[in-house]
Amino acid sequence: MFQGSIVALITPMTPTGEVDNAVLEALVAFHIESGTDAIVAMGTTGESATFTHKDHRAVVQQIIKYVGGKVPVIAGTGSNSTLEALEMTQAAKDDGADGVLLVSPYYNKPPQEGLYQHHKLIAEKVAIPQILYNVPGRTSSDMLPETVERLSSISNIVAIKEASGSLERAKDILDRCGDSIGVISGDDAIAMDMILMGAKGNISVTANVAPGAMHQMCKAALAGDRATAESHNTPLLGLHSKLFVEANPIPVKWVMHKMGFGSNAMRLPLVPLAEEYYSVLIEAMESAGIEVKL
Questions:
Q1: So what's the pLDDT on residue 1?
Q2: Which of 123, 176, 183, 189 is 20 to 30 Å from 147 at the Cα level?
Q3: Given this model, what pLDDT does residue 173 score?
Q4: Taking the CA of residue 159 as centre, how many other CA atoms within 13 Å lie in the half-sphere pointing to its CB?
Q5: Catalytic hit among 93, 161, 200, 242
Q6: Is residue 161 among the annotated active site residues?
Q7: DSSP label at 245?
Q8: Cis geometry, peptide bond prior to residue 211 (ω within 30 degrees of 0)
């Protein structure tokens, strides 16, 4: 259902930490013009962890408005509270999102049965396409392939964003689930190889910076054309790694600022990029053919 280059969109802010809706609208237009296949609103890269529920919902609503049906909008609605995730998922459906992205419950470390029951309940209660999101490096909660296989039988659980960083894990899910659930990469560094292996696309941080190249890479990889995919991916390798020199989204927010998309403001406890990394990121931008405007 969802495939190709799916940007995990940043949330631009004014220097005082308010959402900069003018820049947000410009970002949406930039992605639509560049061929981005879908937009994730208020995921981790959108700084969802520092937003109130009211503000979170307002950003999703604005992105849906700016997109105007041109590409799918996937709202981040995950929480470590099942009831909270349920409420946010229902709100996203009510607001017109095309799907939701549900991170595995973090901090409280549920067992596999808890993960299964959490996602099963939300899927049964809210009739919207749902993407599981496994990112154990952030959540300390690793959804194992056998749990994904169990959940894949639920009709509106349509995909998993697999961000464990392991091609072996992706292959295990693909082998177990076949076409019953789409596998989407959550790691730019191995996205091309995952797609060539059978994944449907990539939910990407790099796509914020280089949406056209990421779209072309995913398109070629989906067609099984490794050579063309590599020709688009190779210049981006620096971005794939250097956009994580500090916690995401600190580096990508700085790069987008340098590209002319708003300020470098973050909400605490995140802070702007440390100066020691400026030259590293500028080098990665230049290698990718990205103009440094500021």
A1: 83
A2: 189
A3: 98
A4: 26
A5: 161
A6: yes
A7: S
A8: no
This model's pTM is above 0.90: yes
Name the active-site residue from 133, 219, 242, 258: 133
Q: Is 66 a catalytic residue?
A: no
Q: Please give the pLDDT value at position 294.
A: 81
The answer to whether the CB of 77 falls within 8 A of the CB of 89 is: yes
Q: What pLDDT was estimated at residue 17? A: 92
Q: Is the dihedral of CA 74, 77, 82, 86 positive or negative?
A: negative
Omega before residue 249 within 30° of 0, cis = yes
Q: DSSP code of 47?
A: T
What does the pLDDT read at residue 74?
Answer: 98
- The residues of the chain scoring below 50 in pLDDT are none
Instruction: Go through the domains of the chain in sequence order and give each one's CATH number.
Output: 4-232 (3.20.20.70)
Q: What distance lies between CA 294 and its chain's CA centroid? A: 26
What are the start-end ranges of the E strands in the chain?
Answer: 4-8, 38-41, 73-76, 99-103, 130-134, 157-162, 182-185, 201-204
Q: How many whole angstroms separate alpha carbon 74 and alpha carbon 60?
A: 9
Which residues contact residue 40 at a Cβ distance below 8 angstroms, ignoring those fewer than 6 apart? 6, 7, 8, 9, 46, 74, 75, 76, 101, 203
